[in-house]
Amino acid sequence: MKITIITATYNNANFIEATIKSVLAQTYKNIEIILVDDGSPDNCGKICDEYAQKDNRIQVIHKENGGLSSARNAGIDWVLSNSDSQWLTFIDSDDWIHPKYLELLLSGATSTNTDICVCTDLDEVFIPGWRKELEKQWTKNATRARYNYNWSLDKNNKPIVNFNIEKIKGLILC
Fold it and tell me: Structural domains in the chain?
């Protein structure tokens, strides 16, 4: 099953390359990446174009600035007109995703026969040291990252961090 990742970018030239690298580093490889340059005045569009020349899974849309929703909608419109993808996710242009993000969420969704899969950010409280370990894997010049984990609640409503999302019913969202 193909997964489409839509990333809208505006004035994020300092982060977009690390974001793209984290998407390209996914263990799940049947993906297409839609980068939407929302009329950014910095080099975002140029950076996106350079990556599209290197990897045929990347499509770039250049549009006038209309805001995040407009940019994401442009990506969705492209997918509906040009793709056979069965799944869709949005990754912010200043975020990194774990290398198994797509693999684990798709596995959870398909194993439970759900149409929507949701995950959230968790802090260092739940996985001590994980943030530092992940930071070692990515570029040293990036200054900000967001980490996505799957979690559920035990019978006492305490969070359990895991990569098994059987209990989450819920598109891949973060």
Answer: 3-173 (3.90.550.10)
> Are the CB atoms for 147 and 121 separated by under 8 Å?
yes
Helix axes 16-24, 44-54, angle to 10 degrees: 20
Say what the pTM is.
Answer: 0.71
Give yes or no for a contact between 130 and 96, defined as CB atoms under 8 angstroms apart: no
Q: Which two tokens stand for residue 19?
A: 């974001």
Q: What is the DSSP letter of 48?
A: H
Whether the CB-CB separation of 117 and 108 falls below 8 Å is answered with yes
CA 102, CA 165: separation in Å to the nearest integer?
13
For residue 172, the SS3 value is strand
Q: What is the pLDDT of residues 112-144, one digit of tens each?
A: 777 776 665 544 333 444 445 445 444 343 333
